[in-house]
Amino acid sequence: MVNPVKTLEQTSLDSIGHSFQEAFKDYPSRWDRHELETLLNRRGFKPELSFGIFEENEMVSFILNGIGMFNGLKTAYDSGTGTLQKYQGRGYASQILRHTVLVLQEHGIQQYLLEVLKDNEPAIALYRKMGFTISREFNYFRQDKEYITRSASSSEFRVAEIGIPDAEVVKPFWDFQPSWQNHFDALTRPLSGTFLGFGAFKDQSLVGYCIIDIASGDLSQIAVHRDFRRKGAGSSLLNTTLEHNQYPSLKVVNTEVHCTSITGFMKSRNIQLQAKQLEMICKL
After folding, report:
1. 50 lies in a domain?
2. pLDDT tens digits for 109-157?
3. Phi-psi bin for 232: left (phi > 0), alpha (psi -120 to 50), beta?
4. How far apart are the first and last CA of the chain?
């Protein structure tokens, strides 16, 4: 008998959290209940468009989807697809994914977006089979605060708290577009995190900025205008984030592999590369 796929509208966060932790227990990051709730809020979680397979009242396989806009298109974002280890090999992930794609199409979703660890070959093969193609490759950096190399802040720049800046103001600083979980829509969703934004100013002009979730240590965005790089603006911003960060480590997730400036900056500060992810998109 084939187990039916069900929406998660009636599934408690505790139940989702239990299955999520079990499915991702070998993942580089771990989340407690509050962190998972924050993560899902940030990613636009919609339980009515998320799905699971249950055995004996336990969710044994699932897809947790967020909904929003990305590159001007109505998009579903896979916040997490997982199957408990003892239930793997039964085709549950394929079953849920096929069901999900059909339902998303019925709801007018134009594309399906996800990220997957680069070394997770079975998952990548499944996504390719379902029509996903690789759009970008990302790095994931992390380091305990005590091991981060600090460079003296530059007196040339003044750093001040600015809140979440206007995207149109800071886009000229970017070398790449932020991923789904780091984009401004994600950072400004209710209950998505405890974000602080800081700007680096040369005289009265904003020349760089960063945004950090001080409760999780997630440095979501950091960028400096090209004319002011390698002059201390980035170091001044990083020093400020470390002063305000309440988490024991700093995490920098989903920087583009081809962005040598951010990769070099992380290396110079001893913020270590932990993993690589692939961003994949399926047009619906």
Report:
1. yes
2. 999 999 999 999 999 999 999 999 999 999 999 999 999 999 888 788 9
3. left
4. 30
